[in-house]
Amino acid sequence: MAGEAQADCLFCKIIAGDIPSTKVRETETTYAFRDINPQLPTHVLVVPKAHYPNAAALAEADPALAGEVLAEAGRVAEQEKVVEGGYRLIFNTGSGAGQTVFHAHVHVLGGGKLSETHLV
């Protein structure tokens, strides 16, 4: 069921502390951690703690939580000091778009030259 932790979801396991991660920030509803395969010096994933398979499902089911995820992504960019140099927020939705973990998440990318090759 949407919103509930999924036993087979990598990000649900990270949020639960069953799989280690490098935490960047955490709120009551979101968790931000460093990507294990960074594409730029700053590459942080911001996920809702509630499980939704992708950004569209999250926005449809809980628009307020979708807004919290985006706001937290902005806070990560500020904390990582990439705001002035520019940064990207990327949601991949569906395997054809490169989504490999089917738990809604936004990539915060910055700290280097942003090019089309960094569309992870």
From TrEMBL:
<feature type="domain" description="HIT">
    <location>
        <begin position="10"/>
        <end position="119"/>
    </location>
</feature>
<feature type="short sequence motif" description="Histidine triad motif">
    <location>
        <begin position="103"/>
        <end position="107"/>
    </location>
</feature>
<dbReference type="InterPro" id="IPR036265">
    <property type="entry name" value="HIT-like_sf"/>
</dbReference>
<dbReference type="InterPro" id="IPR011146">
    <property type="entry name" value="HIT-like"/>
</dbReference>
<dbReference type="InterPro" id="IPR001310">
    <property type="entry name" value="Histidine_triad_HIT"/>
</dbReference>
<dbReference type="Pfam" id="PF01230">
    <property type="entry name" value="HIT"/>
</dbReference>
<protein>
    <submittedName>
        <fullName>Histidine triad nucleotide-binding protein</fullName>
    </submittedName>
</protein>
